[in-house]
Write a structure and sequence with these properties.
Layout lengths: L33 E6 L25 E6 L2 E3 L6 E6 L3 E7 L7 E6 L6 E6 L5 E3 L2 E4 L2 E5 L4 E3 L4 E4 L1 E5 L5 H5 L3 E4 L6 E4 L10 E5 L2 E6 L1 E4 L2 E5 L2 E6 L2 E8 L2 E8 L5 E4 L2 E3 L4 E6 L7 E6 L2 E3 L9 E5 L4 E5 L2 E3 L11 E5 L2 E4 L4 E3 L8 E4 L14 E4 L4 E3 L10 E4 L4 E4 L2 E3 L11 E4 L4 E4 L2 E3 L9 E4 L3 E5 L11 E2 L2 E2 L6 E6 L4 E4 H7 L4 E6 L2 E5 L13 E4 L5 E5 L14 E3 L6 E4 L4 E5 L10 E2 L3 E2 L17 E5 L4 E2 L3 E2 L19 E5 L6 E4 L3 E2 L23 E5 L2 E4 L1
Parallel strand pairs: 4-6, 5-7, 6-9, 7-10, 8-11, 9-12, 10-13, 11-15, 12-16, 13-17, 15-18, 16-19, 17-20, 18-23, 19-24, 20-25, 23-26, 24-27, 25-28, 26-29, 27-30, 28-31, 29-32, 30-33, 31-34, 32-35, 33-36, 34-37, 35-38, 36-39, 37-40, 38-41, 39-42, 40-43, 43-49, 44-48, 44-50, 49-52, 50-53, 51-54, ...
Antiparallel strand pairs: 1-47, 2-5, 3-4, 14-21, 21-22, 45-46
Length: 714
């Protein structure tokens, strides 16, 4: 065949506009019981998944039949089952049928190397079925509105691949404007390459990208893009931007009905990015993204990996498989995993791994910390009891950051680990929060063998701490691992106005492995009898072990609700409970939000004294105590931050006492600060007989009591 000459367009690819991420609108909590269920099991029903109608059987030696429509290229005659195309122009368009049998091999040689793009538009009127081999030193676009299937034996080894059932205008493509749209009834795009045992098949791009795009997209096979990008996207209109370095930016500009992105296979993009994105136009609840396979984007020396599952502000995102963005090699840190959508569910044996040898990475499930940041916030988020989220630092460095968030209700039954490194580093930061409702019945571990333990933040609208080991009303929703009223594999959310109930046992057990922060929009309070003894501390005590800290805050912001209509602040007098730590600090604050309202702080006795030293060891330091309101009275029992006494031995020092700070920072009227007495003395040094053998006593703690308008009481 001859060469068709066209003017070679050098117009630079137009930059796509940034994807606007709209936050889910916050709804007021219903005043009557309401439940919205979406079943994980139905996520696997046929209408959720791309179902592709196979065409006629493809003969093993069947070759693609194509002609040049635009651009400069030489299509050589096929030599048996091998055909070569030499493309001279930066871009070229080919039309015909791209269906090929298992023995067929199509090779595209770009004069422009990795920058060259060949668009193969299948106009046969039938499904494109690729069972053979495609190779190129550049980029290949394949478009067929009837759908595209990469069979189990397909072997695609290219610089980059873009396969879609959407369409593009010739002039847009030749000008470098990659705007794709649904002409009507666009089919599915499915990859099965490598899905059958004993059958060689794969899609591999070298430092480039693989993008499968259409209304429904599915991967059952193997896709590899080392240091590149893998994108599976569902929508009716998308814009592709080639940002260079083998990477792309893709925006979904128009949603589609029954949008679906499914991965049951394996995707690998070490040092790169994996994006599964879908935008659904359905009014009813959709499972738009479902991952039951393995997605891996581990860190390389050059850069960390990132995995993003993004269902937009209408869709449900379900993960039952593995998402791994770990730093497995020596000196590597963990990458980033984001699972976002209106409804987010990690169920079954789902595993999120953002651990790293030299530091943990980041996992954002349902949104960012405090619901802030550019990420789409989930309306409701569910994490099942067999789910594991890991952001550990393995050898050195700090544990990572894990946020589990929803604007309405979060239900957490799983396990999170964000431990510091074995040789150095501090524990990580974990938040499990629902802006309105939270059920926490999982475990969190932010310990650090060498450094400081990390922190767990629980952040619902209000929190009730119930004394004892009795499972509470929220806890009782579990029955052999399945919440009452739910079927196995079903996620059921109930919206209510009641406080989040957490038992004394849950706090004390969790406080053995991590610092705890309880933050509520309105109120934190206690009730019941505190008789669970985690370490023989006796009754009437909320005990935090191992030097870990306890922090409680209420925001009471003017935008959160009217504190003249609901009870606000911190009141820990219910159940006559005292707080005890072993050198861990205690911080209680009200009115930490913007334009805080009047909210009091009332607490019983607090004891943060350090532990007495054993033989040969100094006394432990006492923990600091901070009691602070922005505008409200402070009432406390006795406060003791004494340093621990040294053990027997030579010249062992006593522990230092913790500082005590009590303040009202912005009183709008006269406020009172009342305490039952403060003791902040240092511990006694060792007293071994003999001149010069005694140890020094610990230092006393500073006591600061301030108020900008009010009185002090004792």
């Amino acid at each position: 065949m001859g060469t068709s000459k066209r003017k070679n367009s050098t117009t630079q690819a137009a930059r796509t506009r940034a994807v606007t991420r709209r936050r889910a609108t916050r709804k007021p909590v219903s005043t009557h019981p309401r439940a919205i269920a979406f079943a994980v099991a139905t996520a696997f029903l046929p209408w959720y998944l791309p179902q592709i109608a196979y065409g006629q059987a493809v003969a093993p030696n069947q070759m693609p039949t194509i002609t040049l429509k635009d651009g400069q290229a030489y299509i050589r005659d096929a030599a048996g089952t091998y055909q070569r195309i030499d493309q001279a122009s930066l871009r070229a368009i080919y039309e015909g049928s791209m269906t090929m049998g298992v023995n067929a091999h199509l090779e595209l040689i770009h004069a422009h190397g990795g920058s060259g793009i060949g668009l193969f538009r299948d106009v046969s009127g039938s499904l494109t079925q690729i069972f053979g081999r495609i190779t190129t030193n550049g980029q290949v676009f394949i478009s067929n509105q009837n759908g595209i299937l990469f069979g189990a034996s397909a072997r695609v080894d290219v610089g980059s691949l873009f396969a879609t059932s959407l369409s593009i205008k010739d002039h847009d493509f030749m000008a470098g404007r990659y705007n794709f749209y649904n002409e009507g009834n666009a089919g599915s795009v499915v990859n099965k390459a490598g899905s059958e045992q004993g059958v060689e098949g794969h899609i591999i791009t070298a430092n480039g990208y693989t993008a499968l795009v259409g209304p429904q997209v599915r991967n059952d096979g193997l896709i590899v893009a080392r240091a590149g990008n893998v994108t599976l996207a569902a929508g009716d209109r998308v814009t592709l931007d080639l940002v260079g370095d083998g990477l792309i930016s893709l925006s979904i500009d128009q949603a589609t009905f029954n949008a679906s992105v499914v991965n049951t296979g394996r995707i690998e993009a070490d040092g790169g990015t994996v994006l599964l994105a879908a935008r659904s136009a359905n009014a009813l609840l959709d499972t738009v993204i479902n991952n039951s396979g393995v997605i891996r984007a581990n860190s390389l020396v050059e850069r960390n990996g990132e995995i993003v599952l993004d269902g937009g502000n209408t869709g449900a995102v379900i993960v039952t498989g593995t998402l791994q963005a770990a730093g497995v090699d020596s000196g590597m840190t963990g990458g980033t995993v984001k699972v976002l959508g209106k409804y987010v569910g990690l169920v079954g044996s789902a595993k999120i791994d953002a651990s790293g040898d030299a530091g943990g990475g980041t996992a954002l499930i349902g949104g960012n910390f405090y619901g802030s940041g550019p990420e789409q916030n989930a309306f409701r988020t569910y994490v099942g009891q067999d789910v594991v989220i890991n952001a550990d630092a393995v050898s050195s460095g700090d544990g990572g950051r894990v946020a589990v968030w929803s604007d309405d209700t979060t239900r957490f039954y799983g396990a999170i680990s964000a431990r510091g490194g074995a040789q150095s580093g501090n524990g990580g930061v974990v938040e499990v929060s629902g802006r309105e409702n939270l059920l926490f019945l999982g475990t969190v571990d932010t310990r650090a063998p060498i450094g400081r333990n990390g922190t767990l933040l629980l952040d619902p609208a209000s929190i009730e701490i119930v004394g004892g080991a009795t499972v509470q009303a929220d806890d009782a929703e579990l029955d052999a691992g399945v919440p009452v009223g739910e079927l196995a594999g079903e996620i059921l959310f109930g919206a209510g106005t009641e406080a989040f109930l957490i038992s004394e046992k849950k706090i004390e057990d969790t406080g053995a492995t991590t610092n705890i922060t309880l933050e509520a929009k309105d109120r934190i309070f206690t009730s019941g009898t505190f008789d669970y003894e985690v370490a023989g501390e006796g009754t009437g005590v909320l005990f935090i072990q191992n030097g870990n800290t306890l922090t409680m805050r209420t925001r009471n912001a003017a935008t959160d609700g009217d504190c003249s209509l609901v009870i606000c602040g911190v009141d820990l007098t219910g159940g006559s409970v005292a707080i005890r730590t072993v050198g861990g600090s205690v911080t209680l604050e009200t009115g930490t939000g913007a334009s805080p309202q009047v909210a009091a702080l009332t607490v019983g006795n607090i004891n943060t004294s350090g532990a007495n030293g054993t033989a040969g060891n100094p006394g432990g330091n006492g923990g600091a105590v901070v009691l602070r309101t922005a505008d409200g009275n402070v009432v406390a029992g006795t406060i003791q931050t004494t340093g621990g006494d040294a053990g027997a031995g030579t010249a062992l020092v006593g522990g230092n006492a913790g500082n005590v700070t009590i303040e009202v920072t912005g009183a709008s009227a006269t406020r009172a600060i009342t305490t039952g007495g403060i003791t902040a003395t240092g511990g006694t040094g060792s007293t071994e007989a003999g001149a010069g053998n005694g140890g020094a006593g610990g230092l006393g703690g500073a006591v600061t009591v301030t108020a900008d308008a009010g009185t002090f009481g004792a």
